[in-house]
Amino acid sequence: MRSAAVMMGGLTMALGAGLLGGCVKVQAPDKPIEITLNVNIKQEVVYRLEKDVQDLIKSNPGVF
Amino acid sequence: MTKISSFMTPLALAFALGMATPAVALADTVVEQARAAGQVGEQADGYLGIKGGASADVKARVDQINIKRRAVYTDLAAKKGASVNDVAGATACELFKTRVAPGEFYRTETGAWVQRKGSEPVKLPPYCPQ
């Protein structure tokens, strides 16, 4: 009985590992990543401007 | 130089038009339809982009919107002591969060067009508060 439980446990683990393996499988892109848009911005600047740009969008409905 | 002057002319035109039209203009319905049709979308640089299949009329309207965006970004940048690109990028973060409806396309900082599927959130550029 005990060995059966151990076997079942092992089977579950193997199955779990198999599923997990499927989940975290990452494939490298075959093409190099190209940065085409001119964006090089620091997150702290975005934080500082967050409220202002929210107001900007709200006050210019024809532009956004 | 040619680039700047060709850009400044429509910019000056936009200012002139801006004075002739009401202060609060409503969203361009032609552009809104093009968004829904997947021809136009928000870009990570804070401007509207043409994905493809858009008519000359849609392209012209998108250009007009981008000229106006550039003007409001420049204005806010001067007030906040930030660069125009910073303001544009910060605005893109907000637009990605609020202005891309399910099924519509957006353009990431890598230049790739991505469709927002179902209720999945829009993938924000790395410089946006996540």
Task: Reconstruct the topology from this structure.
The complex is a heterodimer of chains A (64) and B (130).
Chain A: H1 2-23, H2 43-59
Chain B: H1 2-20, H2 29-36, E1 40-43, E2 48-50, H3 56-80, H4 84-98, E3 105-107, E4 113-115
Parallel strand pairs in B: 1-3
Antiparallel strand pairs in B: 1-2, 3-4
Helix pairs in contact in B: 1-3, 3-4
Q: Can you characterise this structure?
A:
The complex is a heterodimer of chains A (64) and B (130). Chain A is mainly alpha-helical and 64 residues long. Chain A has 2 helices and no strands. The mean pLDDT of chain A is 72. Chain B has 130 residues and is an alpha+beta fold. Chain B has one domain. In chain B, helix 1 packs across helix 3 and helix 3 crosses helix 4. The longest helix of chain B is centred in the middle third of the chain and has 25 residues. Chain B is globular. The termini of chain B are far apart. At the A-B interface, helix 2 of A face helix 3 and helix 4 of B.
